[in-house]
Design brief:
The chain is of the alpha/beta class. About 30% of the residues lie in helices and about 10% in strands. The protein contains 7 helices and 6 strands; from the N terminus they run E-H-E-H-H-E-H-E-H-E-E-H-H. The protein has helices at about 20-30, 70-80, 85-95, 110-120, 165-180, 200-215, 240-250, and strands spanning about 5-10, 35-40, 100-105, 145-150, 185, 190. Strands 1, 2, 3, 4, 5 and 6 form a 6-stranded parallel β-sheet that branches. Helix 4 (about 110-120) links the parallel strand 3 and strand 4 (about 145-150). Helix 1 packs parallel to helix 6 (about 200-215). It is globular and about 60 Å long.
Length: about 280
């Protein structure tokens, strides 16, 4: 798509890995459609995932108090005092319309190097503010998706599976990190049990991924509860408004994975976009 820009953030150390092949497929498919594609290969960059005072140059704004990383990093972003590696990633992210995070699922979450990228790059002010959260966040016009591999087969990540519902595993990253910053979240691209997938199966996954990317910008994002459904005040507790709860009372399922209201989780809430 002419004029669109994408960023692929890769979190796998091996160039011969399937994750690396998925990254290559994404770059190829998007460029074929006219996208400009940037890549952050975190291991190749030797990206430092550990946040520290070294991320901020100059003196703390409140040196007599305990170092508040979020506040100090936010102020440093405003004043141009963040470390160079953070600034470089923020520039790539700022330019992107679409961000793809490519990684292997590790211990039911993202690899440490990617978690550190979130913690250091998504600074206060740049990526979020408490005045504009979730769909009102700074990245509300950007789209993001998780593309990842797993060790277990698909059935292990179902409500009946030994690993539990994949929707629950995805909620912290998709809602608590990316959507919190405003991103519209597209359906995840999941390659289950890739280590036990034969070569022809891997080829089919790669070709399917390329085909999907051909129309990726037109996809409908996942559904999250809008901020307008909540009492966004400290006295109100930032909880669902009473009238919203009343409207949901007769429904079979909860509103989302996070706001389930003690009801069964809405099926595939974090893996499938709702069809109207």
């Amino acid at each position: 798509m002419a004029g669109r820009r994408a960023l692929v953030v890769l979190a796998h150390p091996e160039r011969t890995s399937f994750n690396h092949a998925m990254k290559e497929a994404a770059v190829e498919a998007l460029q074929r459609q006219g996208w400009t594609v940037a890549v952050s290969d975190l291991y190749a960059l030797r990206f430092n995932p550990v946040l520290s005072r070294d991320d901020v140059t100059g003196s703390p704004r409140e040196p007599e108090r305990a170092f508040n990383y979020a506040a100090e990093a936010g102020q440093a972003w405003k004043e141009g005092r963040l470390s160079g590696d953070i600034v470089a990633e923020q520039k790539k992210l700022e330019a992107a319309d679409l961000v793809i995070f490519q990684f292997p699922l590790q211990w039911f979450g993202v690899p440490a190097i990617l978690k550190g990228w979130y913690e250091r790059v998504l600074t206060q002010g740049f990526a979020y503010s408490y005045a504009g959260m979730y769909e009102k966040g700074p990245f509300q016009k950007k789209k993001a998706l998780l593309s990842f591999t797993t060790g277990g087969i698909g059935s292990m990540y179902t409500p009946q599976g030994i690993n539990g519902d994949i929707n629950i595993l995805l909620w912290p990253v998709q809602s608590g990190t990316l959507h919190f910053c405003g991103f519209q979240i597209l359906e995840p691209q999941i390659a289950f049990s890739i280590a036990h997938t034969p070569p022809e199966g891997r080829s089919q996954i790669l070709e399917g991924w390329k085909k999907r990317l051909g129309t990726i910008w037109d996809e409908k994002p996942l559904t999250f509860a809008p901020s307008s459904s909540f009492d966004l005040s400290f006295p109100g507790g930032f909880v669902l408004k009473k009238e919203v709860e009343e409207e949901l009372r007769g429904q079979k399922y909860g509103l989302t994975v996070g706001q389930h209201l003690g009801k069964p989780l809405p099926p595939d809430n974090q893996v499938k976009a709702q069809k109207k």
